C-alpha cells in the first residue's frame, strides 16, 4: 500500500502539509532520496553542506539511490528530502539556506 500520496501532491502544490512517511522512520534522521540526475546530486550536496554548517554528523544523513526502495516508500518523484520521518520536500532542489532552516526547525 502506498501510504502517501504526498498529501495530494501537497494540496495541488498549495503546499503546507508535510506528512509522515512510515517506511522512513528509524535509522538516519535525515534522508535524501535521489535518482541519477544532476538536480538530485545538487540537492544531496546542498543537504551535506547544510548539515556541515549546522554541525550534524554524517551518520545522521542517509542518501537513498535505490529507486525501487524509494517507490516502496511511496515517493514517486525525486529528489525528495525527509527529516525525522516527515517528507519536507519533493521534486525540487532546495538551496542550502532552506535545507538548513528545515533541519534546524526539526531540531527544536
Describe what you observe in this structure.
- The chain has 108 residues and is of the alpha+beta class.
- It has helices at 6-13, 38-54, 67-72, 96-107; strands spanning 30-33, 61-64, 80-83, 86-90.
- It has a four-stranded mixed sheet.
- The longest helix has 17 residues, at 38-54.
- The model has no long low-confidence stretch (mean pLDDT 80).
- Report how far the terminal alpha carbons are from each other: 32 Å
CATH superfamily: Glutaredoxin
Number of DSSP-assigned strands: 4
Number of domain units: 1
Query: Could you say which structural class the secondary elements and strand pairing correspond to?
Result: alpha+beta
Query: Which term fits the overall shape?
Result: globular
Helix content class: 25-40%
Descriptive terms for the model:
108 residues; alpha+beta; four-stranded mixed sheet
Task: Summarize the topology.
Elements: H1 6-13, E1 30-33, H2 38-54, E2 61-64, H3 67-72, E3 80-83, E4 86-90, H4 96-107
Helix pairs in contact: 2-4
Amino acid at each position: 500500500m502506498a501510504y502517501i500520496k504526498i498529501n495530494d501532491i501537497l494540496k495541488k502544490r498549495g503546499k503546507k502539509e508535510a506528512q509522515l512517511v512510515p517506511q522512513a522512520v528509524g535509522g538516519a534522521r535525515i534522508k535524501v532520496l535521489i535518482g541519477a540526475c544532476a538536480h538530485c546530486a545538487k540537492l544531496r550536496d546542498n543537504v551535506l553542506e547544510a548539515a556541515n554548517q549546522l554541525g550534524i554528523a554524517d551518520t545522521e544523513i542517509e542518501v537513498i539511490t535505490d529507486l525501487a526502495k524509494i517507490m516502496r516508500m511511496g515517493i514517486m518523484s525525486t529528489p525528495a528530502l525527509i527529516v525525522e520521518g516527515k517528507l519536507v520536500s519533493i521534486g525540487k532542489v532546495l538551496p542550502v539556506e532552506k535545507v538548513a532552516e528545515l533541519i534546524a526547525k526539526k531540531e527544536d
